Amino acid sequence: LCDLDTLLTLPREDLIAGMAEVVKVGFTSDPSILDDVRRGVDSCIDPRGDLIADLVRRAVAVKAAVVSADFREESATGSSRVLGREVLNYGHTFGHAVERVERYRWRHGAAVSVGLRYVAELARVGGRLSDAAADEHLEILTLLGLPTGYPAGRWAELLEAMQVDKKARGSLLRFVVLEGIGSPVTWEGPDSELLVRAYEAISC
Fold first, then answer.
1. CA 169, CA 14: separation in Å to the nearest integer?
2. Is the Cα dihedral 191, 192, 194, 195 positive or negative?
3. Are 120 and 129 in contact (CB under 8 A)?
4. How far is the C-alpha of 98 from the C-alpha of 157, rounded, in Å?
5. 25 within 8 A of 58, measured Cβ to Cβ
6. pLDDT 10s digit of each residue in the chain, 204 long?
7. How wide is the angle at C-alpha 118 spanned by C-alphas 139 and 57, nearest 5°?
């Protein structure tokens, strides 16, 4: 049950942060969400408008379908083509690391936004995602006013935080990445040089 009247009580910053999870679904499963953001950011975060209700419905529908199909998270078999509930973690490996390093002073959506940008850059430098699709992450997140970068010089802290993430296999990092908008796969153990290059691409 989603009582959308609750959105009327939120400051704009929290509405914007919540949109990170909505556009995450747009990147992995429902690209039409990204088109809605392009057509009108203000409409997307207007709690009195019709569009935000539609976005909530579509985001929840994707999550409900994913969770019902993999209720016990049994699809995380190591196959890059069988994601199950893991697809919902797109952007979250790096995003959770940001939250830990920042001692949870960041809004979750802000951390996820930076995580979305990071994983898009990782897929780009790894040759899995086109420049256009990686740039689309920056475009959409910037339109919403979400953060897209993270300070330089903190890679060691972030790496340590990612290695204790629930999706890691020991010290082997596992990411959900895109091979195109709407085409998520898993990538286990990307080369450390690629991880650093992706971080450098978002460093500010």
1. 33
2. positive
3. yes
4. 9
5. yes
6. 889 999 999 999 999 999 999 999 999 999 999 999 999 999 999 999 889 999 999 999 998 888 887 655 555 544 344 467 788 899 999 999 999 999 999 999 999 999 999 999 999 999 999 999 999 999 999 999 999 999 999 999 999 999 987 565 557 899 999 999 999 999 999 999 999 999 999 999
7. 60
